[in-house]
Fold:
Amino acid sequence: MRTFRTPCANNNGFSTVAAVTALLILVALFLFPRFVESPYTLHIMILFFLSTIMGGSWNILGGYTGQYSVGHAAYFGAGAYTTMILMQYKQVPPWYGIWGGIAIVVVVALFIGSICFRLRGPYFVLASIAVAEIMRLTAMNLKDLTNGAEGILATEIPPFTMGGTVITDFLTKVPFYYIGLVLAILTIIVTWLVQNSKLGYCFQAIREDQDAAHSLGINLTIYKNIALIISAVFTSLAGSFYAVYIGFIDPPTVLALDISVQIVLICIIGGIGTIYGPVVGSLVLVPLSEALRSNLIAQAIFKTGMVSEESGIGVFLKDHLAHAHALIYGILVVIVILFMPDGVLGFIKKLTAKKAVTGDRLTVTE
Amino acid sequence: MTVFLQSLISGILIGGVYALIGIGLTIIFGVMRVINFAHGDIMMIGMYLTYNLFTLAGIDPFVSILVTIPLMFLFGGFLQKLFINRVLGALPQNQILLTIGLGLIMSNTMMLIYTSDYKIISTSYSSSSISVAGISVSEPLAISFIITAAITAMLYWFLIKTDTGQAIRATAQDREAAQLMGINVKRMSIIAFGLGASLAGTAGALISPTYYIFPQIGSTFTLKAFVITVLGGMGSIVGATLGGVVIGIAESVSAVYISSGWKDVVVFVLFLLVLLFKPSGLMGKSRM
Structure:
């Protein structure tokens, strides 16, 4: 069961320890590329930031406002496609293109909101999926605009210049690292602002009880749409970032149902409706799925000696395990829903809370 | 006119199979109020089961349903007892996520075993067609429609005439009242999920001669099953039967008159319109 959180219960003041730790982590993250040059490590970090942005933006609509959209691929894909089409066919640099993406996503979000927010519970979930599927099929069929199932491949990214000086030419992963980091921090800051503002209290009131919130004078349609727009804009940024970073998009990789599910899972695994939930979820998911993708898990199994690399099972694992990295999403979500419905963060909180209670009792009996 | 009639009839035939998938989903929803997002993946398992029976034992896909029905029933009961039962009182979104997770596990396990290559079952009748009064009908589709009709009739008889069927309907109408009347609600839930899974699996077996078989086919059919059940009214079996046929017709007519690429868009737009203007569905309120 979800713990009932009243707005006043939020801890607004930072403790010094937490502030110092956060600052240290931030400094370490900003200095990271100076000491680590391995492109693969940077790639993993960029994926981690991307996942944090995606999860964090869903969290504002799903976690704080209680509207479980399973169609966020629509915004991710709309952002990705707009930026990519502008860059590839109209020669608009991506840092202008993302604004085009945001503009389109806001229109799309308002349209989707006008349909889906009339519905509640499972019907809302189904409608959000249906709209995202319509977007995917449209991208498949509008071949003149989106190149259909073949997708769009970015041939080159124009260098980022400011007043004649070249700031970065996007040839290494480092600029992407910093863009990802800044966007991820921005997402966390916005989540924090939402949690501690009047706007956020309205969102949370809607999440806890729509009818009660309505009777208190909260305009459900307006607040749900505000939450949706914030959420959609950040998802679109994540989509644009992904498109430019990877350099290739097609409907299955940016608009499919899998993407929507993945976005929700990041939050579910970390902890819904918490500031650091998406961060924790990404910390769990990104390394795990990367380890599977790059066959590290198969290697580890061989190292333990349970299965030899040459045996039939070994060869099979080596060939196939990499293709089934989404399996880990499935197993994780089943475990999380059955055993820790408040996510990893909630689970840890519960464990520590139990310890504290038993600790108190001990002092009493002594 | 012939073209129209042709697409209408093939729509009705495929609609019969869709109805089977939809009925399975609607029974599960009716009894447990759980939306099963793994429904298409269960169907996909039925397809692979048929594929294996065909390639390994040489059993004809339409005969293989005699094996598929009981096996998928056990599989569904197992899923219910082990997983779904634990979230019956949980938030609806958690139930949805659990079934999404189960679906991911199924499709990815199948991908591990069979890779994501497309498999086909090529029987002697796979591409043959029967011609009736100038309208040609695909033979495997016609056979599967006849089997579907028989299964649906048997299902109606089971739910209306037998004690267990009545108990299932009672559980769907009011879980607590049914329990007070001495019905073993937990057992009914297991039977209901088993039924739903075996209907989905059977549908998978029936379309396997005409469709490609691959691990990710499930999500398309999960979405179709939702459209069908919402169109018919969640929990209504008559509605799901009707919804299946309507969707089948909508698909095949729009494939002919618009384009096959846009036919799914037509279905989803229809779905949104129903959600917006008649959320209780065609047969709303009359539960099972």
Remarks:
- Chain B touches chain A at residues 35, 83, 86-87, 90-94, 96-98, 100-109, 111-112, 115-116, 219, 223, 226-227, 230, 259, 261-262, 264-265, 268-269, 271-272, 275-276, 279 (CB under 8 Å).
